Amino acid sequence: LSEQWLVQAASADVGGIVWLSDFHADPYYGTTAQACGADRVEETQKNEFGVIGCDPPYSLIQATIDAAASVATNRNIKQVIFTGDFVRHNQDQLPNPEDDVLDIINNVTARLAHGFSTVYTGTLGNDDSAVDYGLNVTTY
To answer: Residue 125, Cβ neighbours under 10 Å: how many?
Structure first.
C-alpha cells in the first residue's frame, strides 16, 4: 500500500454508528393479549411508554428511534444497525403468530427507515419467527 493511500484512509471521514437492538415490540401491549399477561392490563394501560417486566409498546420504540435519530443528526452518523429482536417474547402465543411476526418486523423496519436518513442494516434475532426460539432458514 502506498503512503498516500494510508494518509487518505487515516484522514477519511468515516462517521459513526448507531446500534440498536432487542426492541421486542408488543403490538398487544395494554390488551389481554400482551406478552406479560392479562393480569397486568390495568397497569400497562396507565403507562404509555411501558412497564418493567413487559415487552414495550410501539410508543416507547418510536421515542427511542426519535432520540437516536436526534443524536445521529447532530453527529456524523453514517450507519444505523439494528440487530434483532424486533418481536416480543412468547411470539408463538401471539393471536396470529405468522402474520403478527411479519407485521411487527415491517412496522419496526418502517419506523427505522422513517427515523433515519442514513443507511441501516438489520438482522433477525431468536424471537423474530413465528416459532418460539426457532427459525427454519430453509422455509422462510
So the answer is: 18
Neighbours of 34 (CB within 10 A): 21
Query: Distance between terminal CA atoms of the chain?
Result: 43
pLDDT confidence band for 117 (50 / 70 / 90)? confident
Angle of CA points 113, 64, 117, to nearest 5°:
25
The grid coordinates listed for 9 are 484512509
Burial of 72: CB neighbours in 10 Å, binned 0-12, 13-18, 19+: buried
Whether pLDDT at 133 is above 70: no
**Sheet with 119-123, side-by-side order of all strands:** 16-21, 77-83, 119-123
Question: pLDDT tens-digit profile of 17-34?
Answer: 889 999 999 999 999 999
